[in-house]
Structure formats: structure tokens, C-alpha cells
Design a protein that fits this description.
Largest sheet: 7 strands, mixed
Low-confidence stretches: 136-144, 149-155
Number of strands: 7
Mean pLDDT: 86
Strand order of the largest sheet: 3-2-1-4-5-7-6
Strand content: 15-25%
Radius of gyration: 18 Å
Helix content: 25-40%
Amino acid sequence: MFAYYDIEYWEFPDTNLCPPIPGRVDYIHHIADLLSASGITSDINVLDIGTGASCIYPILGHAEYQWRFVGTDIDEESLQHAQKIIDKNVLNDIVSLRHQKHSANILKGVLNQGDQFSVSLCNPPFYKSEAEALEATSRKLKGLKRTGDKVIRNFAGTHHELCYKGGEKAFLHNYLYESSLYKEQCNWFTTLVSKKDLVKGMYTSLEKLGATQIKTISMGQGHKISRIIAWTFSVK
């Protein structure tokens, strides 16, 4: 991380998500391709929804493409750690942070009237509750024939990072709806989607909301298969 992305400091609590760097930088490269194909190649300003304590997307996006970022998060403590990373790497002119005060909201309350973004990034919470996260770990252990192991969640992450009322589906559909309220302020909205069966419903909702383009971008790191869904109301 330090050698490849020219940063001096990258520390945050063990309880927060530790992002897998290859997958995160892959997302960044796919977004660069999306913007380039749309003729958006300069003065790129990115909205990072749920930037987290690691501030990973702003670090990678600036190192790879010199993009500017606004990062948002509902957890004030995570924002404090992210700000320390920004300060120690002298990125205050590149990255600014905003606190989302309402846990149900995604864009409402953090976007200002004069904001203009080239693209948004988002890695949504997967689970409805901590119990559901533990159940997912239990299923994974069973698949690995390790049923005698104590069920402890095998990844870090705070409740805010992992859970949203209604889970990933509810988060995504709220995000789709709110994006339609700010359609003139962002060229492309994007998100990672872990569950393939959510994609069809997202397309249906976006068509009803008036999206002019919707794209599915496949991603794969090792055995993990994921995808980016990107949509726009302004790019023809």
C-alpha cells in the first residue's frame, strides 16, 4: 500500500473494515474506463458514499488518476480516522469529508445545491443485522466442513459498515431513488452489488425513475465474483 500508492500514513482501528486493495483499485479502474467512454476525462470530482475509516477510495483514486473526492459517512468516529489519514498525507486540498447525520439517508443531507460530481462510488452494507452477518459466517464454515468451529465473524467491520435496515436490497433501492432527486448534480452514479439476484430489480426501478443509461460491469478477484451497476440521467 505504502510503496505502490505513495502515502506516508494509513492507520485505522482493527474493528473497522480493512478493504482488500486489489478489489478496490479494480473498481477505480473500471470507473475510469466508464468516464473515459463518456468523454469525461478531466477535472473529475468523485462522491465516495461511505468512505469509512480507511478512506481507501480517495487514496487510490488520487494516486492512480489525480481525482478529487468528497467522502461521506454516518459514523463520526470513522470520519475522524479518515481525516487523520488525509491530514498526515497532505491531501486536504484533494479530499473533504461530510457527516451523514441521518442513518436512513444516502445522498439527502450531504449533497449541497451547488455540488457537481463526475461520478459516485459506493460499497453498500450487506446485512440487515449483526445476527444475519453471523449466520452468513456460519454457512461459510459449514461449507468448509468446519462445523465445530466457534462462529465468530471472520472479517472486521462496525455495525454501520455492515448493516442497514432492510439489508443490501433496501439500501440500493433507497440509493436509486435518491439519485433521481440529484440527477443534474452527478454524471454517473455507481455501486458495487454483491447479490446477482438484485440486479434485475435495480434495472426495473431505474427505468421507472428515468435513467438514460444503465450498465453492468463485471468484476472478479480470485473466487469472488461481484459487479458494478452504473446509471445516469444525463449522459445519452
